[in-house]
Amino acid sequence: MAETGRPLQAARPPTGLSPATARAYAASWRAFVGTQTADCCFPVGQAVVTAWLEARAKAGRPRQSLVVDRAALTAWCAANGEGLDVVLPATRVRRTGAGVDAASLLAAARRCGPDLPGLRDRALLLLAATLDIGAEALARLTIDDITDTTDGMTVALLRPRSGRHHLRRLRRRRDPAVCPVRHWTVWRDAAQLRWGAAFRGIDAHGTVGDPLSVPGIRFVLDRALGRSDHPAKRARRKKSARPSESSVGTAARWCTAMPAPDWIRTTVTVSGPANAVARFRVAAQGPGIIPWQVDFDYEQARLLAPMAGMGAQAVTLARLLRHASERLHHIALQHQAAGTPACAFDPHRLVPVPGPILEAGSESQAAAAWLQAHWGTLLPLRRVKVEAVRDQRVRRSARLVYSFWSAEWTPWQALERVRADWPELVFDIRPHYVQADAGETANVA
């Protein structure tokens, strides 16, 4: 029986969940409670939950996220004695491929040149238009996934959630200019591909190199379609104690590659039961990086562009810089995979950046908007220190004092999320704004 009259704000959380599932369910429950009146109590009712899910679906929420929302509300209501059996609402069909109609992709394919990059781009565009797939699916394609048949070819598309392949059969078209079968064969034979990824990077000398990553394929698609996904540099502005709501809405204009950001020192004091403080200290430790997926072919081309007129020396310098950055990025990913606790307060451990945002890259509009909305800062924290202070006020309690520097803003959004995820702890947040003539410097680069 549901606990009639129990406020939703005082609902008992479900038990027996993993930490990640508990955080995801808690976020969905908070979003639901935020849409209800303050005096709303149990039982919730199936009609209210169905209406909320339909509103989320109309707002464009993906079906996978709606599945999590339904499971979260079902688990929370079950923990409070109410059983729900809610049907998922119909979701709108999301545009795939390059995010444009097939006619634009076919038109872009006709404009590709006869050189090796043109052959690759034409095959990529035609497969995106014919199979109706995006950059993620194109990056997963391998030579073994594409099999020739008597009247065309068969493409095995991997479904990441199930791990199974879905076969798609393509026939030869009468118009050879837009025949995906013909142009895939031309690109495969010209690049002499025998194994590995279906689409590779090509250097300035026409040599086929490493597989194209998801950002690399997006770059190829954007270039062929004549569009760009890189945000413009923002104008410098004065900082306040906390970013306004309008700053979150305009976060797409922020650029993580901006020169010399302002750094703010912040002190966060965490106090509460000793065992909870100890668990938080372990949960907050991490390598202190954001594991972006980097397209080093694009980075090398970007480095070479302003000095291309210098000839072979510029090409060599760009290649050496690319190898150095690629090596450092590989070391950082190794630390991330090993869970190296180099940073005592790692925002990516407490508020993880989603996989699609990591694939978009650090300079994309989506990454800037997500970081500003969920972290409040666009770069990892620096000079993170922690001090365990003995709490003399209450027995069996403990305190941790974190100090760190953050770019442009104190990470208010991340700290608010952490405060909600750890309700048994008390967080005291104090930014310290350094004046221009102060002895302490904020230059932590």
Could you explain how this protein is built, in words?
Strands 7-8-6-9 form a 4-stranded antiparallel sheet. The protein is globular and about 75 Å long. Helices cover 41% and strands 14% of the residues. The longest helix is centred in the C-terminal third of the chain and has 27 residues, at 312-338. The relative contact order is 0.09. Strand 7 (382-389) and strand 8 (397-407) form a beta hairpin. Residues 92-98, 228-259, 435-439 and 441-445 have low confidence and may be disordered. Helix 2 runs antiparallel to helix 3 (63-79), helix 4 (102-110) packs antiparallel against helix 5 and helix 11 (296-304) runs antiparallel to helix 12. The chain folds into 4 domains: 8-79, no CATH class; 102-225, hpI Integrase, Chain A; 234-287 and 342-445, no CATH class; 289-341, no CATH class. The protein is α+β, with helices and mostly antiparallel strands and 445 residues long. It starts with 18 loop residues before the first helix and ends in a 13-residue tail after the last strand.
What topology, given as strand order, has the largest sheet?
7-8-6-9
N- to C-terminal distance: 58 Å
Largest sheet: 4 strands, antiparallel
Number of helices: 16
Domain tally? 4
Task: Name the helicity range.
Answer: 40-55%
DSSP strand content: 5-15%
Shape by Cα distribution: globular
Indicate the low-confidence ranges by residue numbers.
92-98, 228-259, 435-439, 441-445
SS class = alpha+beta
Counted beta strands: 9
- Identify the quaternary structure here: single chain
Rg (CA only): 26 Å
Order of helices and strands: HHHHHHEEEHEEHHEHHHHHHEEHE
- Can you give the mean pLDDT? 78
